[in-house]
């Protein structure tokens, strides 16, 4: 019926109460019975003595009839059975029966004791009344001589009835006391268990995740202490969880925003975390990838092997590889194991996209190689001819003049190259603010045309300037703009046939002005188009060099346009012609 602590308290109480009531009850009854019996013995002895006194004279005188009379009288007064027995055992008086008809009582235990001047007591069934009786006999003494014995008998039934009554009262008393004790124990148990039940309800709520719950802690005892301890624990737990979740969201934010890719795997190679940068690098979806084996997701044999090495050897690994899907990228990655309880729990891989760095490095290396090559060619020529001159050709005037002309030509070429390189490095190192500059294209373009007239005439090329009226100024340095246009027109003339036509068109757009230089020359093959603005890039090296070019012109032009906030591009078809265009920002005000 009652379970848990409450049940235990109640049942233990009940057990204790019942045991103590039983012990108390039994010993009380036992004591009471003894007390009553002692009292009865004493009373009966006193009454016996009284009767012995009353009849002693008549007995000594031999007035037995008188004795019988007195016996009947006394018995009805005292509500007892009285028997008077002579020394020889003859019954001379009895309140229940005719003394003459009664047998000799000398051998009755109580009588024989009384005849020996003692108080005789016995309990047995009376042969006269046939009832269980308690007998008390006292001697009848006259002048120091024992004349007989006076005996009183009390039916045991009566005594037992009294005892039964006493036991009944005791039982009811004990029952009432037990009931009261049970009620008190119930109340006490409730008092003990209610706070515990309330604490356990609270604890269950906390366990379910509601950390704002506080349990009952009002008592100033161990239970109250328990409540306080649980509340303190919950508070600390709440603080820790808040700290952890803040830390977690901070980490998630970092992971979500860093440009480096991050992939975390457990020690079995199952992917646990993929950040957005890694998703993009590998063309995967974190939701799909997480929970899968690395080999299912990362399609790179080398990287998968390094993952295995990192997990098995528990060592930091740096690895660089090229990924071809979804985009060609050079990735540098760092694989590092992480531990839990001093045992490897997994590894973290951080990826850096170093495609651009590698490209720049490659470009620098190419640039140095190209520049050296371009410098070496004229130098070799100069060195060759000057040595020939020194070894005697100086005296051969005709050849000497020719050789010196070549040396001069190559020195010019060298000078131009150095100037162009300086120009390029200057453009790369310093970015001008185009907003501070202003150029009037309509004034500059015709001037450029004039300057190029000798070259145009040389190839009989017609320069068509298609200039709109009222063009706004642009954000550009006029000298730079001139240089750009000269470069583009120079190329157009250079790569166009005799007698062809070169056209300069201007288109006004919303925020920009677009300048187009169109020729009908040899054009550029499609495969070369994406690289045409690279330094030293030439479609036909031999031919370009023959024409005096280094392949630096377009890259200088590109730098200049971009420095002024514009863009540059080209459309070209082989043997049909090319259109180089660039934009410049319109000047506002
Ligand atoms: P270069 O000094 O060799 O002309 P550029 O940088 O000016 O160097 O040009 C790079 C290359 O682009 C040239 O070598 C040439 O092959 C090609 N090119 C440039 N402009 C034209 C054009 N208008 N038509 C055809 N090819 C051109």
Automatic annotation (TrEMBL):
One of its GO terms (molecular function) is kinase activity. Gene3D superfamilies: 1.10.287.130, 6.10.340.10, Histidine kinase-like ATPase, C-terminal domain (3.30.565.10), PAS domain (3.30.450.20). Keywords: ATP-binding, Cell membrane, Coiled coil, Kinase, Membrane, Nucleotide-binding, Phosphoprotein, Transferase, Transmembrane, Transmembrane helix, Two-component regulatory system. It catalyses: ATP + protein L-histidine = ADP + protein N-phospho-L-histidine. It is a multi-pass membrane protein. The keyword Coiled coil applies. Signal peptide: none annotated. Residues 247-285 form the PAS domain. It is found in: Cell membrane. The chain crosses the membrane at residues 12-32, 166-186. CDD domains: HAMP, HATPase, HisKA, PAS. PROSITE patterns: HAMP (PS50885), HIS_KIN (PS50109), PAS (PS50112). It is an enzyme of class 2 (transferase). InterPro entries: BphY/WalK/GraS-like, HAMP_dom, HATPase_C_sf, HATPase_dom, His_kinase_dom, HisK_dim/P_dom, HisK_dim/P_sf, PAS. Residues 370-588 form the Histidine kinase domain. It comes from the Bacteria. Residues 190-242 form the HAMP domain. Its EC number is 2.7.13.3. NCBIfam families: PnpS, sensory_box. This is histidine kinase.
């Amino acid at each position: 019926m009652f379970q848990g602590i409450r049940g235990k308290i109640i049942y233990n109480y009940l057990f204790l109460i019942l045991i103590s009531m039983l012990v108390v009850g039994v010993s009380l009854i036992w004591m009471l019975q003894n007390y009553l019996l002692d009292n009865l013995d004493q009373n009966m002895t006193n009454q016996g003595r009284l009767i012995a006194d009353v009849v002693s004279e008549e007995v000594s005188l031999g007035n037995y009839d008188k004795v019988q009379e007195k016996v009947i009288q006394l018995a009805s007064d005292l509500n007892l059975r009285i028997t008077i027995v002579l020394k020889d055992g003859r019954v001379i008086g009895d309140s229940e029966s005719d003394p003459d008809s009664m047998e000799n009582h000398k051998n009755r235990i109580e009588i024989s004791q009384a005849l020996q001047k003692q108080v005789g007591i016995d309990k047995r069934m009376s042969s006269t009344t046939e009832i269980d009786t308690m007998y008390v006999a006292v001697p009848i003494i006259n002048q120091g001589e024992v004349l007989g014995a006076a005996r009183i008998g009390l039916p045991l039934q009566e005594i037992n009835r009294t005892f039964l009554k006493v036991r009944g009262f005791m039982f009811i008393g004990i029952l009432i006391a037990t009931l009261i004790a049970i009620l008190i124990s119930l109340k006490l148990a409730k008092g003990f268990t209610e706070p515990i039940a309330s604490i356990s309800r609270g604890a269950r709520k906390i366990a379910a995740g509601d950390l704002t719950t506080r349990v009952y802690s009002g008592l100033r005892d161990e239970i109250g202490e328990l409540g306080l301890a649980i509340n303190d624990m919950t508070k600390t737990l709440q603080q820790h969880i808040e700290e952890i979740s803040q830390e977690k969201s901070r980490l998630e934010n970092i992971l979500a925003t860093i440009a480096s890719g991050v992939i975390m795997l457990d020690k079995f190679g199952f992917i646990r975390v993929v950040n957005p940068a890694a998703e993009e690098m590998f063309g995967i979806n974190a939701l799909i990838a997480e929970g899968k084996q690395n080999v299912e997701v990362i399609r790179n044999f080398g990287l998968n092997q390094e993952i295995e090495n990192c997990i098995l050897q528990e060592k930091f690994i740096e690895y660089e590889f090229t990924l071809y899907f979804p985009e060609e990228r050079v990735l540098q990655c760092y694989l590092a194991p992480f531990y839990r309880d001093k045992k490897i729990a997994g590894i973290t891989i951080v990826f850096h996209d170093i495609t651009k760095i590698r490209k720049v490095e490659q470009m620098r290396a190419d640039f140095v190689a190209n520049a050296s090559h371009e410098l070496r060619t004229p130098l070799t020529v100069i060195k060759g001819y000057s040595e020939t001159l020194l070894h005697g050709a100086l005296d051969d005037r005709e050849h000497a003049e020719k050789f010196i002309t070549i040396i001069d030509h190559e020195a010019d070429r060298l000078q131009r190259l150095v100037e162009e390189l300086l120009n390029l490095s200057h453009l790369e190192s310093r970015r001008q603010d185009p907003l501070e500059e202003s150029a009037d294209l309509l004034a500059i373009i015709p001037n450029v045309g004039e300057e190029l007239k000798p070259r145009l005439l040389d190839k009989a090329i017609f320069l068509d300037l298609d200039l709109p009226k009222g063009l706004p100024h642009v954000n550009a340095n006029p000298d730079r703009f001139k240089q750009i246009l000269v470069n583009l027109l120079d190329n157009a003339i250079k790569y166009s046939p005799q007698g062809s036509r070169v056209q300069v068109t201007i288109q006004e757009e919303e925020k920009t002005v677009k300048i187009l230089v169109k020729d009908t020359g040899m054009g550029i093959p499609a495969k070369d188009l994406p690289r045409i603005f690279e330094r030293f890039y030439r479609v036909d090296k031999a031919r370009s060099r023959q024409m005096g070019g280094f392949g630096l012109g377009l890259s200088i032009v590109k730098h200049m346009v971009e420095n002024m906030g514009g863009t540059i591009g080209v459309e070209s078809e082989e043997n049909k012609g090319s259109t180089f265009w660039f934009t410049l920002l319109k000047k506002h005000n």
